[in-house]
């Protein structure tokens, strides 16, 4: 079921400052900020060739990452995103295996415009998992 690792996401309190560190200190190419109100975050991506790093900060009230940043005020690893070739088949398998799919269980378009779903961190060893259909 799992394909490539699409991205590793890091939640940050200040996206511009984090992007500047990735550009200046790490010499990375960082994409322009992408506000995603439907996800309650603004993101940038660093394309590493074999995978990506996603830096994200809260956007608006009720961001799903606000609680995480309260607990981790300087930021931290937030989620992993695995690629799948059929997100509905993946969802059905995950539900059949007893995993919790977050939200209403319906895929939403992610940062790349592809359908994504999230799985509860407590079901995957303290790691929030995102799956993205590619
Ligand atoms: C840009 C679009 C898209 C893409 O295309 O890449 C994105 O990546 S959008 C990213 C932002 N969206 C989401 O993260 C959606 C899914 N997340 C959620 O629904 C919530 O974040 C959550 C997972 C339900 C957690 O919400 P929270 O308010 O923190 O709830 P709790 O405090 O009840 O947390 C429960 C429990 O889980 C621990 N936790 C929370 N977040 C994480 C995390 N990222 N990694 C690991 N563990 C996490 C939290 O500490 C609680 O643990 P206990 O305190 O031990 O109960
Ligand atoms: Co993501």
From TrEMBL:
PROSITE patterns: VOC. Belongs to the methylmalonyl-CoA epimerase family. It holds the Pfam family Glyoxalase_4. GO terms for molecular function: methylmalonyl-CoA epimerase activity. This is Methylmalonyl-CoA epimerase. NCBIfam families: metmalonyl_epim. InterPro entries: Glyas_Bleomycin-R_OHBP_Dase, MeMalonyl-CoA_epimerase, MMCE/EMCE_epimerase, VOC_core. Its EC number is 5.1.99.1. Keywords: Isomerase, Metal-binding. Signal peptide: none annotated. Residues 4-134 form the VOC domain. The gene is mce.
């Amino acid at each position: 079921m799992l394909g490539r690792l699409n991205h590793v996401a890091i939640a940050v309190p200040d996206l511009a400052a984090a992007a500047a560190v990735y550009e200046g200190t790490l010499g990375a190419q960082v994409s322009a900020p992408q506000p995603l109100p439907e996800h309650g975050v603004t993101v940038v991506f660093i394309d590493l060739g074999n995978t990506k790093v996603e830096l994200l900060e809260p956007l608006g009230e009720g961001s799903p990452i606000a609680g995480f940043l309260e607990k981790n005020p300087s930021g931290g690893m937030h989620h992993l995103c695995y690629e799948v070739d059929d997100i509905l088949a993946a969802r059905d398998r995950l539900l059949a295996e007893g995993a919790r799919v977050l939200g209403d269980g319906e895929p939403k378009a992610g940062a790349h415009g592809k359908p994504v779903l999230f799985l509860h961190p407590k079901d995957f060893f303290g790691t929030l998992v995102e799956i993205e259909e590619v």
